[in-house]
Amino acid sequence: MTPSAKILAVSSSPRSTWVWAADEAAAAEVRAGLEAAGRSWWPAEGRNAEARVTDLDIGVDAAESLAVLVTAGYTFRWHESQYEMDRHPTLYGVDVGGA
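Given the sequence above, the corresponding structure tokens read:
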């Protein structure tokens, strides 16, 4: 896996936290890592319904899933669809670039 493959885009709303992998294969690796750690995930729905997007839920569930991904070596940047005023340096305590 290339270093850039370990960078995930992230976006959030009051109802969902999404991680955007580079492609379906990278998304499958993300999901396998989450499952191995006992974390739940869902395919993205609605306007984010792409095979490379994984829904982590919100709140504690999303925070714990993001922490698992950090431990696995992933880093995060804001997805271009994230509203600029909602881009903060952290999301659930996890560093996010591009704030």
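The mean pLDDT is 92. Try to locate this feature in the token string yourself.
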